[in-house]
Amino acid sequence: MKERILKSRTGLFDLSHYNDIHLICGVVKDFLRSLSESLLTNALWKSFANVIEEESDFVKQQNFDALIQQLPKPNRDTLAFMLLHLQRVAVSPLCRMPILNLSRTMVSSISSVFIVAYNRSSM
In the chain, which stretches have pLDDT less than 70? Predict the structure, then answer.
């Protein structure tokens, strides 16, 4: 399926006839893992990790916003699409997974920085 999506002329691919959510999620995660670098980029990785350590949610949000603006446009657009899509999935009545678990299933494909920080903060 991944090859068919990548070879499509428009970059769009109708997934409506695929009923296996695990197949679709697997393709998305495989695509993200196949990128030459994380969506958050190697250059900004440490900065994103440092923001997670910030105590103030307000300052954390401001710093995330500033870092996201520094991402290359394709990375920023892909990240925005992924986050909006995950928000739609989370509110779907078909989704039986809590938002925290849903985010955990996808975050390692975006960047391991969030997993490391989450594990440190939950100890």
Answer: 1-2, 4-15, 111-123
Tokens describing residue 65: 């916003």
Taking each helix axis as running N to C, give the angle between helix 113-121 and helix 99-110, from 0 to 180 degrees, rounded to the nearest 10. 130
CA distance 32 to 26: 10
Judge whether 109 and 35 are in contact, CB under 8 Å: no
All structural domains of the chain with their residue ranges: 1-34, 38-121
| 81-106 tens-digit pLDDT | 888 888 888 888 888 888 888 877 77
Question: Is 1 in contact with 23 (CB distance < 8 Å)?
Answer: yes
